[in-house]
Design goal:
By secondary structure, the protein is mainly α. It has 27 helices and no strands. It has three domains: 6-93, no CATH class; 197-351; 361-505, Serine Threonine Protein Phosphatase 5, Tetratricopeptide repeat (Alpha Horseshoe).
């Protein structure tokens, strides 16, 4: 049986560079002390490269007797050393940490009255902070510059430094304010997307909330962006805004700009691989809606090539890239263009999800369950659709899943109907009816479903069933173009299925 092992999990997700750094770190700090520790690391690195689950009894068989005898102690020592080496690696390979380390060096040199050396270190820190847009650190450096100038310069020289620093500090504080404002807008838009997952509001209150946010002047003028951080934010938020407005071409234009800037920043180590993945998915989603398959394929190939292009990416980044690829394909359930890819991905969907679970939020898991279920449904693979739907339905009824929980139950009704099992149909009818009536808000789409759900409890003959399906098709068709109901139809459009049943196909 597998056992939980923190050491195995850490070593398994370490990058090639992190492992190489650990070996150097070990030689520097533990050389000649305990070769068994390094040997255990190498054995675990090899073991974890081929397995996702740790079986301790199996693993210990590969170790020499002396190591097995003292295994708990050696394992604990290795775990502590690995964490210390990772901490040191982050300090050495993260520019923000480098700035903070340089500021610590400055403080030491200043306290020793080695002012010329302190000045040299402070200039180095400032250059690094400015190039990477670490605005809070820049503000700290400005304060250090004032203090240093007071001790090094005469009144005239000091006055010039104070004047320059004051001007730079005002500009820097404006950039900090600009970042804060764009972050606030981004958070408010994220909340809206959680409320309305397919980007459509379903009532006047939602529309008012959306219009208030989207009318912010910062979102309409790129010139008001004071840094590359806010410029990227501007592009990203405008992708969302134009999707809400139904302007898919404009959305794609902003998505491409966003991805281009992020890709350049990644190469300069000014952006994370996570941001790079998100930017490519933004192009995938926008190009799919704009039916621009050339741009879709370009982004798809880049994301598919992620592991090769970034061999030292973390396990989290690699899994996120794979997840986004799958999401882009399964989201296009009714699109034959993606059918072949979807069928291939479906084979490994269960196995892949076991890996994704380590890095996905609850919201991401819900979306994954839903898009695969919908993909299976539109391919008439109803048992598979039901299996993924039940996974979603079993998730605790948290706020972020309300809409998906609703549409999942409606889809599951249809899956139950397709099973031909009267007991199952009645069970799912009761379950869906209970959930929908319990919701605080019931919209037209759900009301129609509820109305015919109630009728379904009394329907017995085939003629009555066909009549009910025809009436449901008529009533749903009547609201399809209602702007407040587009959300429901984007998530799960029952009309094609109803039409097929009515026509006997």
């Amino acid at each position: 049986m597998p056992v939980s092992n923190e050491l195995f999990d850490v070593i398994r997700v370490m990058t090639r560079k992190e492992k190489s750094f650990f070996r150097r770190y070990f030689r520097m700090h533990s050389a000649g002390k305990d070769g068994a520790v390094l040997n255990l690391f190498e054995r675990l690195a090899e073991y974890s490269a081929n397995k996702d689950t740790y079986f301790e009894d199996e693993f210990k068989l590969s170790l020499i007797e002396a190591t097995r005898r003292h295994f708990p102690v050696i394992k604990n020592n290795l775990y502590n050393l690995v964490l210390k080496s990772l901490n040191e690696y982050r300090r050495e390979n993260n520019n923000e940490n480098k700035v903070k380390s340089l500021l610590e060096q400055y403080d030491i040199l200043f306290s020793m009255s080695l002012l010329t050396q302190a000045e040299k270190v402070l200039k180095k820190a400032k250059k690094l902070a400015v190039n990477n847009e670490y605005f809070m650190d820049i503000n700290t450096i400005h304060n250090r510059e004032r203090t240093l100038a007071r001790y090094m310069l005469d009144a005239e020289g000091y006055s010039k430094v104070v004047e320059r620093v004051h001007k730079e500090q005002i500009e820097n504080l404006e950039r900090i304010k600009n970042v804060s404002e764009m972050n606030d807008l981004g958070s408010r838009i994220t909340i809206l997307l959680q409320k309305y997952p397919t980007s459509k509001t379903r009532d006047e209150a939602g529309k008012k909330e959306r219009d208030e946010i989207f009318s912010n002047p910062l979102l309409s003028d790129e010139k008001k962006m004071l840094s590359s951080i806010t410029t990227k934010r501007f592009y990203n938020l405008n992708v969302v805004i134009n999707e809400w407005a139904g302007d898919h071409a404009a959305s794609l234009g902003y998505a491409k700009k966003y991805a281009d800037v992020v890709e350049k920043d990644v190469l300069k180590q000014k952006a994370s691989l996570h941001e790079f993945i998100i930017s490519l998915y933004s192009v995938l989603a926008s190009s799919g809606r704009a039916h621009n398959m050339e741009e879709y394929e370009n982004a798809y190939n880049k994301l598919e090539d992620f592991k090769r292009q970034f061999p030292d990416a973390t396990d989290r980044d690699r899994l996120e890239a794979s997840y986004m690829l799958g999401l882009s394909v399964f989201s296009k359930a009714a699109d034959d263009y993606h059918a072949e890819r979807g069928e291939k991905m479906l084979v490994d969907a269960d196995e892949n999800f076991k890996k994704y679970e380590r890095v996905l939020s609850t919201q991401q898991k819900i979306v994954w369950y839903f898009v695969i279920a919908r993909f299976c449904f539109f391919k008439a693979a109803y048992p598979d659709a039901g299996r993924w739907l039940n996974r979603l339905i079993q998730i605790p009824n948290i706020d972020v899943s309300q809409d998906y929980q609703c549409y999942a139950r409606i889809m599951n009704l249809v899956v139950a109907y397709e099973s031909g099992n009267p007991d199952r149909i009645e069970h799912e009818l009761r379950r869906a009816y209970y959930f929908l009536t319990k919701r605080n808000k019931i919209y037209k789409y759900e009301k129609i479903i509820l109305e015919y759900t109630r009728q379904a409890f009394r329907v017995r003959s085939e003629r009555e069933i066909n009549e009910m399906l025809e009436f449901m098709y008529r009533d749903l068709s009547a609201i399809k173009n209602d702007p407040f109901e587009e959300n429901a139809f984007d998530a799960f459009d029952m009309l094609p299925w109803l039409k097929g049943k009515i026509s006997g196909k």
